Amino acid sequence: MNLGTTIIKGRRSVRSFRETEIPEDAIRDALECARQAPTAANGQPWIIGVVKEKETLAKIADLTDHGRFIAQARACFAVFGEKKAKYYLEDCSCATMNLILGLWAYGIGTCWVAGDKKHYAVAVRDLLQVPDTYTLVSLVPAGYPADIAIVPKKDLTAISFSERFVPR
Ligand SMILES: Cc1cc2nc3c(=O)[nH]c(=O)nc-3n(C[C@H](O)[C@H](O)[C@H](O)COP(=O)(O)O)c2cc1C
Is residue 16 lining ligand 1, measured as CB closer than 6 Å? Predict the structure, then answer.
């Protein structure tokens, strides 16, 4: 156990945010974390939008099915992948997780809101005027937590094995 793993293990999805603004430094540092994520053949096939305007946050929230709380976030990151990149989904998922953990390290809560495979992916892309060579992978609303729901996690023994799988 160390500071890094404590931060990673302490992360929880946050869907209720305080009014306090997120410092620009934290946003920039979290984007730097995303930038450093691993990618297939170092392709870095992504573009990440940062939305802070309340009106746009509300529009994105309305487009989603399970992301209505985006309207109450202080900011929402939108991670888009280059469609032509074979592993854009994995690459952009790595970037999304780095972004989430980077923000959490500042005490800023987020919740991954699905983008890929969602009916609203094109509408969100159009709203943010992103070219159609990209596709939405994730939305990451962010803000200081007002409330954090703790959900149960599977036991380590149930999700891992040593050397060979043992039927349970
Ligand atoms: C690919 C993906 C899509 C998700 N989509 C949504 C979503 O649309 N709305 C939402 O409220 N949470 C969404 N979540 C968050 C999960 O519900 C959450 O991670 C899960 O319940 C475990 O809780 P925890 O993040 O606190 O560990 C998504 C998470 C992932 C990884």
Answer: no
Task: Enter the pTM of the model.
Answer: 0.98
Strand runs labelled E in 96-168: 109-110, 113-114, 134-143, 145-147
Task: Please state the domain extents for the chain.
Answer: 7-159
Closest protein CA for atom 3 of ligand 1: 114
Q: Which CATH class is domain 7-159?
A: alpha beta
pLDDT of res. 29? 98
Place of tokens 């939008």: 49
Instruction: Convert the pLDDT of each residue in 84-119 to its tens digit.
Output: 999 999 999 999 999 999 999 999 999 999 999 999
Contact call for residues 50 and 108 (beta carbons, < 8 A) = no
